[in-house]
User: Which sequence fits this backbone?
């Protein structure tokens, strides 16, 4: 009797182990991907001939339910992806608008930093520097020309002073000579008058 119980126990154990490797009929078509479920349904169906198989209505209902569940899950995923896509498009549009606004602000700031206002007129820095250096060069040339004309005027003034002094000296000399001649003539005249009166 112990042998029968032992043999029965081994048989029960082997059926349990084999049963775990192969799922039971309704569970075989409920697990795995849809492709696996259709393959299991085909394997579990009876063949009538080479082109036809008999499928149990319950198995077909299980597969139909699984297909509907999968389709609704995929539709939900598609709807979520579309929602995410539209929110991503809105985010991208917002970011593009933000970048455009920042670019406009950057251009305005660059224009402010690259320009200088002088007498209410905005100049670019390059133009401003060119104008400033041109004014500096013109003023330097005017200063040098004034300095040169001042020196020439000083030299001319010195020459005129010398000439004036020379002319005054000549004039003084001529006056002296003329006075001496006048005195000589007056003496001669006096002498003549005295000779006549005597």
Assistant:
């Amino acid at each position: 009797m112990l042998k029968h119980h032992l043999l029965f126990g081994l048989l029960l154990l082997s059926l349990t182990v084999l049963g775990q490797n192969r799922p039971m009929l309704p569970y075989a078509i409920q697990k795995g991907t849809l492709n696996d479920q259709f393959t299991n349904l085909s394997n579990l169906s009876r063949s009538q001939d080479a082109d036809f198989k008999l499928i149990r209505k319950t198995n077909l209902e299980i597969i139909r339910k699984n297909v509907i569940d999968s389709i609704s899950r995929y539709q939900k995923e598609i709807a979520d992806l579309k929602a995410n896509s539209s929110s991503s498009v809105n985010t991208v549009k917002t970011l593009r608008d933000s970048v455009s606004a920042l670019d406009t602000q950057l251009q305005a700031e660059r224009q402010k930093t690259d320009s200088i206002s002088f007498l209410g007129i905005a100049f670019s820095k390059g133009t401003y520097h060119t104008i400033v250096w041109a004014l500096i060069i013109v003023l330097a040339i005017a200063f040098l020309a004034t300095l040169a004309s001042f020196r020439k005027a000083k030299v001319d003034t010195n020459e005129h002073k010398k000439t004036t002094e020379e002319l005054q000296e000549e004039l003084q000399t001529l006056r002296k000579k003329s006075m001496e001649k006048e005195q000589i003539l007056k003496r001669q005249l006096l002498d003549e008058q005295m000779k006549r009166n005597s």
Remarks:
- Residues 67 and 73 are 10 Å apart (CA to CA).
